[in-house]
């Protein structure tokens, strides 16, 4: 079976026509994820194997109208940010009630701590919240979540595409370590720009009474901890704005395994489906022309398969990063417990271990699975669909 190569000086159309004359068959190959897209008027041509699998590939019968979307262009960056922002917003809103209950458990809220550690605790806590604040209470802090998650997800997915393009410009350059590194760098980049919004969201969710957004922001800004730091933290600027960065270093430490493992697992799961589970692919695939590297667009997965890949990525990444997430939540709500004290990551972890042992680092993990698994599944699935809509696949 003839293989389409990127070598030589002929045009992509010429290479396709040559292969048609030689064999009339196209070998199924996957592509690098470099964001270049070529579109044109098409006619169907399929190999016997593709026809038997219900997959139709398309080649050109006229001079194509080629649209090249470079990964470094502002157009590509804007489109990936929009796709990522929409994906993150949809996913977070879907699991907002679980997110609030998990924060209450992680931060050891006295009113809800009695429910922590049991499988039914999340439902009992949600029941109490609904009784006292109605359905709106279950979504308390979600507006702040949306304000945070849109730029966070937009930057994360955009940064991942950029790091991936830089580290792995073609499929031949892809390695597990590069995928892990690209995901980790994307997570750290996004959290750097959006961390204050995350802290405000957590504090809103921690409050058992409805608190105006602007009032809480003003309260955090004026907490004295930002001006009075312990000896081992005096190298940091004594600024009020630092109150919005409680737990930031812990967040960065946790984001490396979380984002890295998440993107890595999702990519590996997708490739496994495309390689070994052909029934997970959509029945009709429009491949168009190869890009400048001679690679084709990846075959699109069915929605159920995409959700499964995202859910698996969410569960594994949650397990890898959860202890650091618990420590981060403790640091973020510390201002509500003692506005004058600014406790570092290691001291917070030490106090948590003394109080609850190793088990304390996994409080609310069952809720984490219930929350993160569908959240990541929805996020990746919506992102993949938005890429198709915005023509950046």
TrEMBL record:
Residues 23-52 have a biased composition (Low complexity). Keywords: Membrane, Mitochondrion, Repeat, Transmembrane, Transmembrane helix, Transport. The chain crosses the membrane at residues 361-383. GO terms for biological process: transmembrane transport. Residues 23-66 are annotated as: Disordered. It holds the Pfam family Mito_carr. It is a multi-pass membrane protein. InterPro entries: MCP, MCP_dom_sf, MCP_transmembrane. GO terms for cellular component: mitochondrial membrane. Gene3D superfamilies: Mitochondrial carrier domain. It is found in: Mitochondrion membrane. Solcar repeats lie at residues 75-166, 174-272, 301-389. Belongs to the mitochondrial carrier (TC 2.A.29) family. This is Mitochondrial carrier domain-containing protein. It comes from Lobosporangium transversale.
């Amino acid at each position: 079976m003839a293989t389409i190569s990127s070598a030589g000086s002929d045009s992509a159309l010429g290479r396709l026509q040559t292969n048609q004359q030689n064999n009339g068959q196209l070998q199924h190959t996957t592509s690098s994820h470099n964001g270049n897209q070529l579109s044109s008027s098409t006619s169907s041509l399929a190999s016997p194997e593709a026809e038997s699998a219900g997959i139709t590939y398309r080649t050109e019968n006229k001079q194509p109208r080629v649209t090249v979307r470079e990964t470094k262009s502002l157009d590509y960056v804007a489109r990936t940010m929009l796709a990522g922002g929409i994906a993150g917003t949809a996913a977070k809103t879907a699991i907002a009630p679980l997110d609030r209950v998990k924060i209450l458990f992680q931060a050891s809220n006295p009113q809800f701590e009695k429910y922590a550690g049991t499988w039914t605790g999340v439902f009992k806590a949600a029941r109490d919240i609904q009784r006292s604040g109605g359905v709106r209470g279950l979504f308390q802090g979600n507006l702040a979540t949306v304000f945070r998650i849109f730029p966070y997800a937009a930057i994360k997915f955009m940064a991942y595409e950029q790091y991936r393009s830089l580290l792995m410009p073609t499929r031949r350059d892809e390695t597990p370590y590069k995928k892990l590194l690209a995901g980790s760098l994307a997570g750290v980049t996004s959290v750097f720009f959006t961390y204050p919004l995350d802290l405000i969201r957590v504090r809103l969710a921690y409050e058992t009474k409805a608190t105006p957004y602007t009032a809480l922001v003003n309260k955090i800004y004026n907490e004295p901890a930002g001006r009075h730091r312990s000896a081992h933290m005096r190298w940091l600027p004594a600024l009020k704005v630092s109150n919005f960065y409680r737990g930031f270093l812990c967040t960065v430490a946790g984001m490396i395994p979380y984002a890295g493992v998440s993107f890595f697992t999702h990519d590996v799961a997708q490739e496994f489906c495309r390689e070994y589970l052909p029934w997970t692919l959509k029945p009709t695939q429009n491949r168009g022309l190869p890009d400048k590297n001679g690679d084709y667009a990846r075959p699109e997965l069915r929605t159920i398969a995409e959700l499964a890949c995202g859910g698996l990525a969410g569960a594994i990444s949650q397990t890898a990063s959860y202890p650091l997430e618990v420590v981060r939540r403790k640091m973020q709500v510390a201002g509500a417990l003692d506005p004058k004290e600014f406790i570092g990551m290691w001291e917070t972890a030490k106090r948590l271990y003394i109080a609850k042992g190793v088990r304390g680092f996994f409080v609310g993990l069952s809720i984490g699975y219930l929350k993160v698994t569908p959240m990541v599944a929805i996020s990746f699935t919506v992102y993949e669909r938005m890429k198709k809509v915005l023509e950046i696949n």
